Amino acid sequence: MSDNQGHDWGRQGGGNAAPAWIEPEGGTPLHLRQERERARQRRRRRGMVLFLVVLLIVGAGVAWLVKAFLDGRAAEPTPDYTGSGTNDVVVRVNEGDAGADIAQSLLDSDVIKSVAAFMGAAHGRNELSAIQPGYYKVRAQVPAAAAVDMLTDPERRVGAFTIPEGRQLDDIVSTTGAVTPGIYTLAAEASCVELDGEQSCHEADDFRRAVANGSLEELGVPEWAREGVSAAEDPDRRIEGLIAAGRWDIDPSGTPMEIINEMLARSARMYDSTGIEQTSQSIGVTPYEALVIASLLERESQPEDFAKVARVILNRLDIGMMLQFDSTVNYALDSVEIGTTDADRARVTPWNTYAKLGLPQTPISSPSVQALQATENPEDGDWIYFVTIDLEGTTVFTSTFEEHQRQVDIASQNGVFSSGR
């Protein structure tokens, strides 16, 4: 018993137990396993360092390639033309165009070779920011700097003209022989442009024919005016009043029909901005009739009296009284003056309000937006009559014929009605 007991004790905790550095199952010694683990860690660290080194080398290489590419691009010259150009062209600067917009238009017209060249040439040129919308004669295929010079040269602007308030389509000839150019003449003169030494112009009659022969759609007549325009008896005057007074730019290379269409479309937008279709209803007339009234204001009164004259017209229409405006007599005459003769007033025309009740068949002039706004917002009053009593334009408004006649006598004494016939 004692031998077996001693053997058991010795195997469990005595001389026969395995050394601490040998695995119990007889595996790899602990110190070898620890050495191998340290070796693996060293290999991982070396691998990580190598990876980082490679990554840095690749990154540096990519950065070098990008820099080399950009340096190469920077070294390339900006595309630009040289020389004095090939031929004259007309380009347009639109309302609200920025420098890049202008550059793109020039590029599209082959005036410049690149937007970058133009923007570079325009840098620091303050006068370019003041360029007005409109049409300009320039040269095709010119250096960008030359294109900037051309656009800032006021002599190169073409197609620009002004239609004064109260101007008619046709010329007005006074009894003294003085001629006031009409819209057709003004547009014809503005259409003249010299390209490569050759002068090109439309004639006033070209515009008359376009108006007389074009459809309402081709002409660009707004919907609210088509009934009135269709009823007009004089074909080349049927768009009277539909071209607004103001500053105009037309494309000299456009056809007469294209030019008329653009002018009517822009005018319609101007008139629509006053709310003509809505506000005319509040005074009991159609939008076209409101335009007719506004045209009378331009020919019969000064701006400060527009709203009062509008009220006189509406009051007369309400009571069925003839308007009897000399301006409507003059509209059909070959020569005009402030005073008209008995024979002139007796002539029956589509416009003569001495010979017909109501409004003229069409407007008799180009009204301003101010005149149209006064028509839509007439001043309150019971006036039936008004007369200009002196050559300075002083106008007196009255409610009775007796009062009116006294003012007419004063006007006669002041020479307002003196005739040159």
UniProtKB/TrEMBL annotation:
Keyword Protein biosynthesis: no
Lineage, top ranks: Bacteria, Bacillati, Actinomycetota, Actinomycetes, Mycobacteriales
Region entry Disordered, spans: 1-38
NCBIfam families listed in its UniProt record: endolytic transglycosylase MltG
Compartment annotation: Cell membrane
Keyword flag Cell membrane: yes
Name this protein carries in UniProt: Endolytic murein transglycosylase
EC identifiers of the protein: 4.2.2.29
Superkingdom, natural source: Bacteria
Primary site of residence: membrane
Site label Important for catalytic activity, positions: E300
One of the record's GO molecular function terms: lytic endotransglycosylase activity
One Pfam family it belongs to: YceG
Compositionally biased tracts (Basic and acidic residues): 1-10
Record's catalysed reaction(s): a peptidoglycan chain = a peptidoglycan chain with N-acetyl-1,6-anhydromuramyl-[peptide] at the reducing end + a peptidoglycan chain with N-acetylglucosamine at the non-reducing end
Keywords attached to this entry: Cell membrane, Cell wall biogenesis/degradation, Lyase, Membrane, Transmembrane, Transmembrane helix
Cellular component terms (Gene Ontology): plasma membrane
Transmembrane annotation, as ranges: 48-70
Biological role: Functions as a peptidoglycan terminase that cleaves nascent peptidoglycan strands endolytically to terminate their elongation.
Organism (species): Lolliginicoccus lacisalsi
Family note: Belongs to the transglycosylase MltG family.
GO biological process, one term: cell wall organization
